[in-house]
Amino acid sequence: MDTTDLLMKFARIGARLKVADRPSRRFRAASGVITLDVRADRNGEFFEVVSPGGAAPEVAVLDVRPADRHLLLLVREGGEKHKFLCGHDERHWFVAAVPESAPVGTVRQAKEALKPAEVQVAQSHLGLRAEARNRRKNAAYRRQGEWFFLPVPGFAVDEGLVLRNEPLRRGNGGKPHWVEFCYRTGGETVYVCSRHPNGVTPSQHEKIIAGNPKAKGWGWQVMRRNPGVYVRGGVRHADHKTIVLHGWHRVLMNTEDQSRAMRNVAFLD
Fold first, then answer.
1. How do residues 177-216 score in pLDDT, each as one tens digit?
2. d(CA 200, CA 225)
3. How far apart are CA 21 and CA 28, in angstroms?
4. 65, 98, 114: which is the final residue of a domain?
5. Domain range holding 77?
6. Which domain of life is it from (predicted)?
7. In a domain, 100, yes or no
């Protein structure tokens, strides 16, 4: 790992980078050797690459886009390789794991690979140019962080089943995005708590309680896993500018959950 080169590449997008040899918290290559994260100190946010002593993985920057404040990072160790999009979105730096099935080599390709298939179809159908596809708001969708919102003209709902001020969140304990009006269909009923953030099925929940009576006090919530979710009105999050959706929009999460580096992330609503 060429630390000097990495520092220079991250500096080109206006970011600080620290290389450490202690465990981090969030992103981990499948081999468990390298971890990536965004941390903060008294000088603000910085990217952190953690490589435990004795490990000799390859970490290299494949593409740098200073004007866009994004770069594409490759992590290769043994027979495994993973790519991460590192960049700035509205107010904060982020790291996004790119699905290994996507043959990407540039920042633009990584951004496209992180879009759900439905989003890619919608923007192709409308003939959006590359510049428009890169925006958080265009004719095909709105985006806030990792969530995409596709307009569904004429979508009819049972108003009696519309919920107000509902959270959209992954199963990784992150801060939720709050939506003003929410309607959901289908999905799987799961029980969620801090010890099981991705949820367990009702039968699994019963086994947990039977095996440990104290588990009743773990603060379980009944939620829907991978439901069809539609929202309208305001969508707010502390790290992003509030957006307002006029009419019903289908909610889709980016494709990070398809990468092995983020394989434990689920869509919970």
1. 999 999 988 878 899 888 888 889 999 999 999 999 999 9
2. 9
3. 14
4. 114
5. 3-114
6. Bacteria
7. yes
Residues 262 and 151 in one domain: yes
Per-residue pLDDT tens over the stretch 66-79: 999 999 999 887 77
Are both 163 and 58 inside the same structural domain?
Answer: no
Does the residue 132 lie in any domain? no
Q: Is residue 119 part of a domain?
A: no
If asked whether residues 193 and 253 sit together in one domain, one would say yes
For residue 121, is it within any domain? Answer: no
Confidence of residue 62 (pLDDT cuts 50, 70, 90): very high
User: What are the pLDDT digits (tens) for 244-253?
Assistant: 999 999 999 9
Residues 151 and 261 in one domain: yes
Residue 163 β-bridge partners: 182
Torsion sign (Cα): 4, 5, 6, 9:
positive
pTM: 0.79
Smallest CA-to-CA distance from 37 within 46, 240, 144, 169 is with 46
Chosen domain end from 99, 114, 129: 114
Whole-angstrom CA distances from 15 to 8, 21, 112, 158, 172 are: 10, 20, 23, 47, 25
